[in-house]
Amino acid sequence: MDPAPARLTVGIVSAGRVGSALGVALERAGHVVFGVAAISDASVHRARTRLPEAQVLPIEQIAQRSELLLLAVPDAELAGLVRGLAGANVVRPGTIVVHTSGANGVAILAPLTEQGALGLAIHPAMTFTGHDEDIARLANACFGVTAADEVGYAIAQALVIEMGGEPVRVEESSRSLYHAALAHGSNHLVTLIVDAVAALRESLSGPGLLGQPLVDDQPGGLPERLLAPLASAALDNALRRGRAALTGPVARGDVDAVAAHLAALAQVDDRLVESYRANSLRTAQLADTDPALLELLAKKGH
């Protein structure tokens, strides 16, 4: 038996950023997305734009007709959706039910698998903005996959490869740690960059060489241009060289420079200085730097 049928009838709940992008990828692989659930105006627009051949239908109708049912709802809504579908008894035995939650494995699908569905967790390790680049980025993305048995893993692997991604096996017991690591490396990176841009904008608030203001409050300006090549190089170095990529005053153990940074940032935003302190402390620990610097960074609020 082929673990991945060449053509599946696909229903999607819901047509958010993730669900609509995966729907496009599945269509390109030869599957047929017949219906999507979409409630908000943005979701309806996204469904009609990205999946024009699919109908916007009630969830129950989508569940009844699907051979592959894709549940692409926020993590907090997944358990309730699964219980509701099981209670309505609308998912046919043999249906492949896939959710896209990074934090959950297949245990959360138990109410449906107990009724004969095949449950899979397939999480694209990618950020989704709702723009066209979402679909293009799937081709370079890894997908964390979890299944109850080897047949499930084979199906999950085949579906991911069809969508152009790389399947990565994640054990059920490791899903929370897997998800925490991805959130730490991506979501917190955005916070870090946004804070750094804010501090740069403040530092460049004076007149430029021609007497005109250097910066305004619009994104994509001089602070971003200053930071972009440095941050891109740092990310590349970190991914290729690990902790050996650490540079700068914290890694060097320059107590005076770091103390000056803390004082300067405190004039901008107390929350920013505490974020810098926390990140500097972890950097100092990784770099095994001057104990005097570790002592300075541990003195929160001073």
Automatic annotation (TrEMBL):
Pfam families in alphabetical order: DUF2520, Rossmann-like
Q: Write down the InterPro entries for this protein, in alphabetical order.
A: 6-PGluconate_DH-like_C_sf (IPR008927), DUF2520 (IPR018931), NAD(P)-bd_dom_sf (IPR036291), OxRdtase/DH_put_Rossmann_dom (IPR019665), TM1727-like_C_sf (IPR037108)
* Superkingdom, taxonomy of origin: Bacteria
Q: Any idea where the Putative oxidoreductase/dehydrogenase Rossmann-like domain is?
A: 4-124
> In this protein, which residues make up the domain named DUF2520?
142-282
Q: Which PANTHER family is this protein grouped with?
A: CONSERVED HYPOTHETICAL ALANINE AND LEUCINE RICH PROTEIN
Q: What is this protein called?
A: Putative short-subunit dehydrogenase-like oxidoreductase (DUF2520 family)
